Amino acid sequence: MTLLTIPTLSAAALGLILAVFVRRALSDRDIPGPVLARYTRLWYMWQMMKGDFQYTNIRLHQDHGKIVRIAPGWYSLNDIDALKSIYAHGSRLIKSEWYEAWNFSPDPNDHKLFSVRNIAHHSDARRKVASMYSMSAVVSYEPYVDDCIRRFCAQLDSFVKTGSMVDLGHWLQCFAFDTISKITYGERFGFLDRGEDINNLMKSLEQSFVISSLMGLMLWLRPVVLFLGNFFATSNTLFVRRFAHQKFTELSQKGDQGPSTGELLPMVRRFLHAQRDEAKGLTDRYIKVSAASNIGAGSDTTAIGLSAAVFYLYRSPETLEKLRKELDQACLGRDVSFQEMQKLSYLQAVIKESMRLHPGVGFPLFRLVPRGGAVICNEFFPEGTNVGINSWVVHRDVRIWGADADDFVPERWLSNDTEKLRIMEQCLMPFGLGSRVYVGKNISLFEMNKLIPLLVRHYDIEIQQQDGKDMKARNMWFVKPIQFQATIRSRQLG
After folding, report:
1. Do residues 485 and 167 lie in contact, with contact meaning Cβ atoms separated by under 8 Å?
2. Where are the bilayer-spanning segments (predicted)?
3. Pairing with 467, which of 25, 88, 258, 390 sits 20 to 30 Å away (CA)?
4. β-pairing, 473-476 with 379-381?
């Protein structure tokens, strides 16, 4: 090869790159969005890293309408009919390849239900575990939840005595971690006892979310990340593996003995009992993966929901007083039952409204347009295009919620307008929609219905260092509260 060929090859390579950029620019020239997003995914990646993409996404739709380009071939949508087209039962749109980044093992048997993309495979996998997450099954775990609530309140009572400021967001996550651990394995991790991030588990999980969110746009890096993750496994990640393995072994041995009459069984014991029915196809490996997924997703989902409810309630004195009146009239003690709480209409409105204003996930839930393309929002999207809707965007849409879409107004859920209520319910998606709705939804709602009434009735909480209308948070998939400082006092009941 002569030196003269080097400039020639360089020019050819540059020309090819420019041709790709031009083709991308022309292929979706009619769809609005940031200029850089027409040519590269770097714009979206940078916005993700800033930690507030939920608000950027809202502004983009306010400026450009129903369809916004956020990367070449990646589109954020905001439309009621699009919700049905993309997420409804029977939709042909599978999860985007972005979800592959959430599989930290090359073995498909180790993949979480959340990241299974094939529709048939997901349906089969969900069928195996659905009964364990039904509301009737979740209610049977109530003694486990009550145990964690008592430990949590003991910590709050100690803060009342000292008058010290506490990171309430951290403590609510401690509660969520220990509760999901208790439900899953029958034993708490111990976060509520120590009040610290044991073995940096919370930090490690958050780092994994950052890696997965970014790697989903750079899947060519996945083999490298998987190799390095296994090679440089730390004591933090090994702690979870050891705990899960130890508990599984112990529960397997108990499972061989069979449950005693009236014995309270954690979820893994129930899995092991169901395993005897070979038709269900529940392998040890599958049970371990399902249990680990509970810990990874269940703690953040619940902690964020609890934090949002506490934030909006205690920043809204009139709403707080109205809920307290409903709870006081119900003559509740320290131990409240889920069935009792389900009957309280204002409490249910408060929970829905807090999840509307602060859903747990802050990125669009992308799906892949199938062969032959699809028409969505009167726009044709070719095969292989990624389309998705961000719950933060649809939850703040004034066309659905009215001019007060940014305000905390639980009363909107008590309207007599049945058609309006139907549309709002249809557009409420804090746990996703359709067949891919979060499998642990009932567990999160159960914990919220148990803990929020107790906090509201027995504690005065003064939130500090929060001046904005919304709770300070960082969005790296989960929109987690930050600087959620508060002082706590006991409430004097009449």
Report:
1. yes
2. 209-233
3. 390
4. unpaired
